[in-house]
Specification:
By secondary structure, the protein is an alpha+beta fold. The protein contains five helices and 15 strands.
């Protein structure tokens, strides 16, 4: 549920420090999950690893029970864009990609970040999708400056991805974050420069490009009401950072560094 109230809740430095701690734990959790991503592993096994790691570090999984969601992570394989429910029936295989979206609640503040992992060797075009989406996230972050607008972020993401002939999901967007996982404003991955809410000091948001190899169109599973898939069945990638506006520009609260350490590389 995005943007229940059309009011931006700007954060103090003390609150941003707490947000940072919650998000660093998400980064470490993604790395812990990443250690176990391999052919033959189920998404339910990955969910249990994330759940136990978060609890062992004094936090609570933010996703578990959120609007009834049954997992501690969203585990979205191949054509699943977001909100994949962890399952014993989904077994990873060589050449898959899996987006792991994870949240924590620590000291009253929420961490939220996502990373799309390759499973073994993946197709060259899919690798290009992953790298482009990760770079698009950075382009969006670089667009964050006090006095600019939220539309500048989406414009940066959209133009970069479409230049590489990938498409941007419209129905699902980034969001404000703080004590609640989803706060105002929404942060689309598309848009026009100079539109949307003004970026101010203390703004805390999640920027999360969801980029498709084929068409931008998606469908939601009727059976579970959660799983979002590409309509054409082609793969999708999803990377997410939580940022805070500090000293006029974006400071990344979450981290991929722990994941990069596990993978031994920063690109695919």
């Amino acid at each position: 549920m995005l943007g229940r109230h059309n009011h931006i809740n700007l954060k103090t430095r003390e609150q941003i420090d707490l947000l940072y701690q919650a998000n660093q734990l998400v980064g470490r959790t993604l790395a812990e999950v990443g250690k176990h991503i391999a052919p033959g592993v189920t998404t339910k096994q990955l969910d249990a690893i994330a759940h136990d790691f978060i609890m062992d570090h004094g936090a609570v999984p933010a996703f578990l029970g959120y609007d009834g969601f049954p997992g501690s992570i969203c585990a979205s394989v191949n054509e699943v864009v977001v909100h994949g429910i962890p399952s014993d029936d989904v077994v990873l295989k060589e050449g898959d990609v899996i987006s792991v979206d994870c949240g924590t609640i620590l000291n009253g503040f929420t961490g939220d970040s996502a990373f799309t992992f390759p499973v073994g060797e993946v197709d060259a075009r899919v690798r290009h999708l992953l790298n482009t989406t990760m770079e698009a996230l950075q382009k969006g972050i670089d667009a964050v400056h006090v006095g600019r607008r939220i539309g500048d972020i989406g414009h940066a993401v959209q133009t970069y991805c479409e230049r590489e002939n990938f498409s941007v999901v419209r129905e699902f967007v980034g969001h404000g974050i703080g004590r609640e996982m989803h706060e105002y404003p929404d942060v689309p991955n598309y848009g026009r420069r100079g539109t949307g809410p003004v970026i101010e000091e203390g703004l805390c948001i999640c920027i999360e490009p969801m980029i498709n190899l084929g068409s931008k169109n998606v469908v939601i599973d009727d059976e579970d009401g959660w799983t979002v898939r590409t309509k054409d069945g082609k793969p999708s990638a999803h990377y997410e950072h939580c940022i805070a506006v500090v000293d006029g520009r974006a400071k990344i609260m979450s981290s991929f560094e722990f994941v990069f350490d596990v993978l031994g590389k920063r690109s695919f």
